[in-house]
Write a structure and sequence with these properties.
164 residues
Length: 164
């Protein structure tokens, strides 16, 4: 496009200035208007060249920024993957610890476990009781404080409270 524009502009200037065609040797005659037009075209051509250089520089700057963004994105994705892997490890460790806790509570008598469960939040008690065998839960619930036993039973059975 740049070459076509220059050739077209040069051709237009040549025609405007009366440049002889096909090798004729006539002197170049140009009016003041034609000379002014030629200067104007030359100025425009220079302005276009400056704009093209600016656009090329901007394009290079954008390419550098794109590389930076791509590098940062790759870094973020690597960190995200690392965090996900660590979360999996933490959850596995928590699951193991919870299973060990259930084993300990399951080996204790109902009268020993009930006072411990009375000190915990209802949702945690329900989670612990869900992980235990039903016959052991049946022995523990009567030993829990009665109001707490009702709340935990609702959570276990997902029974809603009656509206008043």
């Amino acid at each position: 496009m740049k070459k076509i524009m220059k050739i077209t502009l040069l051709g237009l200037v040549a025609l405007t200035l009366g440049t002889p065609c096909h090798g004729a040797n006539k002197p170049v005659k140009a009016s003041a208007e034609e000379a002014s037009f030629s200067v104007s075209l030359k100025a425009r051509e220079q302005a276009v060249a400056v704009k093209e250089k600016e656009l090329d520089q901007r394009q290079q700057d954008l390419a550098v920024m794109q590389k930076d963004v791509d590098a940062k994105l790759a870094e973020i994705l690597a960190l995200q993957k690392d965090i996900s892997e660590k979360l999996v490890e933490i959850r596995a460790e928590q699951d193991l610890e919870f299973k060990n806790l259930i084993k300990v509570y399951s080996s204790m008598s109902a009268s020993k476990v009930a006072p411990i469960l009375n000190q915990m939040e209802d949702a945690n008690v329900a989670k612990i009781l869900r992980a235990m065998k039903n016959d052991l839960v049946a022995k523990i619930i009567p030993k829990i404080e009665s109001q707490k036993a009702v709340r935990v039973s609702r959570i276990l059975g997902r029974i809603s409270t009656p509206s008043k």
